[in-house]
Amino acid sequence: VCQQHSRSCGLRRGVRMVLSNEQDTKPAKEAITFAPVVSSPPATHSADGRPLFHTGTAAVKGDPVEPSGLMDNILTVVFQIGGHFLWANDNAQLAVGHIGDLIGDKPLFMPLYKYFRQFGGVYKLSFAPVPQATFYVLSDPLAVKQVLSLRPADFDKGLLAEILKPILGKGLIPADQETWKKRRPVIQPGFHKAWLNRMTTTFSDCSEVMMTSLDGSVAAGEIVNMEEKFNSVSLDIIGKAVFNYDFGSVTTESPVIKAAYACLKEAEHRSTFLLPYWNVPVLGQGPSSIVPRQREFAGHLRVLNEKLEEMITLARSFKNEEDLEALTARDYSNIKDPSLLRFLVDLRGGDCDDKQLRDDLMTMLVAGHETTGSLLTWTAFELAQHPEEMRKVQEEIDRVLGTGADRRQPTLDDIRNLSYTRLALAEGLRLYPQPPILLR
């Protein structure tokens, strides 16, 4: 529970940041305090003597294990048959966990991290006695480098693309290699220097709205859930930067952010559920599904689709096609609509149908705001526990941007000069990767 912060991390003095169930209700003065966490020291070696590697803070605690029933235990044994006997000669550690760890709404990375501490940086999980249901879980850097960097063509997105298809279609994250090679060169030029310079103003404007909201919470003595604030301000920035649209989610409850979060939760649910019932007509598809969560998912997806279609239609109605050089030469400091959507619609030779454009933009909307909000939340959480590091970040921002009446909005060059702040964010991303799991 952080009780003192400054603008350097997006918080005002006096705001309480709730990231734990243990809340300190005493008023803050000048010291940074955080909720104590009572836990036993983590193990340093596994049962067979192999070293274990730990990241993050001891404050991240898993839920207690629920008592299991007879059927759960039977399923657990069945799901390990494949790993134990059918393809046991691959020398990989088999994670023998309980089926209750992998089914339900608990974040998947939590049981995977528990298995990592027990079995190390490479192990396998068997969900059923068939090869297609056996997964290798990698966190060892050399193994990950093989998959993502040195041999990416050997590992397709498979299950990831299947899970995300209803939400992101063929956006850059789940796209097959052919689609990715076509779309990335079209989208990447949109992040040119003139646009980035203009966006620093957008970032500051949206952050000021959040600061005003936090000031109101301070005056009212309220406890603030900073994860919600960071997610909201990230969504507002994406709305302005990508769509030239004001979601206003910092000050009002946004149905878009609620729908985006619900769709991500559904994707996580599908990644761990044993049978893909959502592919069965009536049982798991659309608003007429007999499964309540699938009806809710269809409703949330409709909210996102309708909003995107509305913004794409509006952008196409004012299309002014130009080549890449002319687009990057525009005066983005004075242009009425500096959004990435405007760039993609106006780019000569980069045109695509509304479906592909929707998929590209949905990826930025859904995957962009929640990952950014999570990074800001965890970085602020760690800074709250390391006040000496927080002060260095604050001092750097004061030095680069000025203080009091001399404080100014940052430029792109200013952001480049915030080297220690960037390192703090990079460390937050290292300790708490966003997203925490990638599938191949």
Largest sheet: 3 strands, mixed
Distance between the termini: 37 Å
From the spread of the alpha carbons, the general shape counts as globular
Instruction: Give Rg in angstroms.
Output: 24 Å
Secondary-structure element string:
EHEHHEEHHHHEHHHHHHHHH
Approximate helicity band: 40-55%
Helices, by number, come to: 16
Let me know the average pLDDT. 77
Number of E-state strands: 5
Low-confidence stretches: 1-42, 48-67
Strand content: under 5%
- Global structural class: mainly alpha
**Arrangement of strands in the largest sheet:** 2-3-4
Please, could you describe this protein's structure?
53% of the residues lie in helices and 4% in strands. With 440 residues, it is mainly α. The strands form 2 sheets. It has a 3-stranded mixed sheet. A two-stranded parallel ribbon has the order 1-5.
